[in-house]
Design brief:
74% helix, two-stranded antiparallel sheet
């Protein structure tokens, strides 16, 4: 039935009075037999609501003042910093809001209002109230930090309140048997108001030129929101009210959920930076290797956690979601190996933990223990590097074993790889083995003055594939390790540093005479 037909609105208006009467009768039935119980309930409810407002408003004001103070201390805060500070203010305020709403729910439950028939509805109202608290708090804190525009925040609050009123009316009507025509008319009105809000707010934002500041919501999102508003208007005109109502609900819920995930990610990032700073000494060449992989792990974890929530928001049945989660956790059997998310997560965490422990041991040995011995620097560097290789091998083997892979099958893989090594990987393996020989036999060491066919200079680093030599004109030469093993190398400082000092003295005299 089209919402533009006169018969539709006549039936909806006729059923409206009946729906209101039904709701009123069901509400009065709760306390019609005991007026004293009704008065006691209203007093307790007012007291609980007062406590909720006092606790929530106090936390809200304190969090707002703290957030503004932190933002003012920053000269040019980035979007990530704004989201980080806003996240903590939102978190503290939501804790107060959750506690206050829980007190209200306990008061209602204690007076017998929550029964088996309306228990689900009561919990839905509780979650809806918390959702409204979250939306209001989130919008205000993001505006205070400067992460979003005021117009975008106002649109978010308006859409959330509209969604809450619509949900409350629909669920109440479903509980008390309100006619379908009333629900359709309500959906048409609500979605039309939502579309009008999108058109007005996003059109005003498109006309503005405020890209001098960094905001969370970019300008291209304004055009998408404007097009959604136009689509809802056209779909309502054609009678697709159910479709537009679905788009309205998903837009409100998914947008708020996505912003929550972005804020959580921004709050975790500084913690990861501190972890990297603890395990890694920063330098001019630092590329934040550990921070990159930790951030990637956090992002993948958030995505995995978000998938079932997003599925529930878009309408997937909870039983189907539980089945998918069970299959993901229990795993898929491939041959004799069962691959599951839990085993993969365990393997990744085990690999990271063992690798972090290895780096920690390397740092302690290199900076605290070996420096107290009489070993020369090249020997200390070789020991630290060998420990790194051993720790990496152990971490890799442990991770593969935790997935369920039989390590005895590595012999078969090694046999298969030998063919590839014979064709394309021979030079890589040769350089790797040569690097190990250089570390153990030590014909050249870090700090030695060597002369090879490619040039001469000081050995700076012996890595897995190649050795870095820095010439006297500050040029770096990367020489494959196999070349250092298979060809002749003149080492001026193989036994000690005396020859190097004499040669430097001779070069200095020669340069001085040439200058004269």
């Amino acid at each position: 039935m089209s919402p533009f037909s006169s018969s539709f609105w006549n039936e909806a208006l006729r059923d409206k009075d009946q729906a209101l009467l039904t709701v009123s009768e069901n509400w009065n039935m709760l306390f019609s037999k005991d007026l004293g119980k009704a008065q006691s309930f209203y007093k307790a409810l007012m007291l609980a609501c007062t406590v909720f407002l006092i606790v929530f408003i106090f936390t809200f004001v304190v969090s707002t003042l703290g957030l503004r103070h932190k933002i003012k201390k920053l000269t040019d805060p980035s979007t990530a910093q704004k989201l980080d500070y806003s996240g903590y203010s939102i978190f503290y305020t939501l804790i107060a809001g959750f506690v206050g709403l829980s007190v209200v729910l306990l008061v209602i439950d204690a007076h017998g209002i929550v029964t088996e028939q309306n228990q689900t509805f009561s919990y839905q109202i509780f979650l809806l109230s918390f959702f409204v608290v979250y939306a209001l708090t989130k919008s205000w804190m993001l505006v205070c930090s400067g992460a979003v525009r005021k117009v975008v925040s106002l649109l978010s609050v308006s859409a959330t309140l509209l969604f809450s009123v619509d949900f409350l009316l629909l669920e109440t009507g479903r509980q008390f048997g309100v006619p379908l025509e009333v629900a359709i008319a309500q959906s048409f009105i609500v979605t039309t108001i939502f579309a009008a809000l999108l058109l007005v707010f996003f059109l005003s934002l498109i006309k503005r030129k405020d890209e001098s500041k960094r905001y969370l919501v970019k300008r291209r999102c304004f055009y998408i929101g404007f097009l959604i508003g136009v689509f809802i208007i056209i779909a309502n005109a054609l009678g697709y009210v159910a479709l537009t109502h679905f788009i309205f609900e998903q837009a409100v819920l998914l947008t708020n959920f996505a912003i929550a995930m972005i804020i959580i990610r921004a709050m975790i990032k500084p913690i990861l930076a501190r972890i990297e700073q603890f395990f890694h000494q920063k330098s001019d060449k630092d590329e934040h290797f550990l921070l990159f992989w930790l951030s990637l792990l956090v992002d993948m974890t958030l995505i995995i956690i978000s998938l079932p929530i997003v599925a529930a928001i878009v309408g997937v049945e909870w039983e189907g979601i539980k089945l998918l989660i069970y299959q993901a956790i229990s795993g898929i059997k491939v041959g004799g190996i069962t691959i599951s998310l839990s085993s993969l997560a365990t393997a990744i965490m085990l690999f990271i933990v063992l690798l972090v422990i290895t780096r920690f041991i390397q740092k302690i040995l290199g900076q605290k223990v070996l420096t107290k011995t009489r070993m020369v620097e090249s020997v200390r560097l070789s020991i630290v590097q060998i420990i790194g290789y051993v720790g990496l091998t152990i971490a890799l083997m442990a991770a593969i074993s935790s997935v369920g892979f039989d390590l005895s099958n590595l012999a078969l893989i090694a046999g298969a790889l030998s063919v590839g090594i014979g064709f394309g990987l021979q030079s890589i393996v040769s350089n790797f083995v040569s690097g190990l020989i250089l570390l153990f036999e030590r014909p050249i060491k870090v700090g030695d003055w060597v002369i090879v066919s490619s040039g001469e200079g000081i050995v700076k680093k012996i890595s897995v594939r190649a050795t870095e030599i820095e010439t006297f004109d500050r040029t770096s030469i990367l020489i494959p390790n196999s070349e250092l093993i298979s060809s002749s190398v003149k080492n001026w400082t193989l036994k000690d540093k005396i020859g190097r000092m004499m040669w430097l003295h001779y070069c200095g005299q020669k340069s001085y005479k040439s200058l004269k």
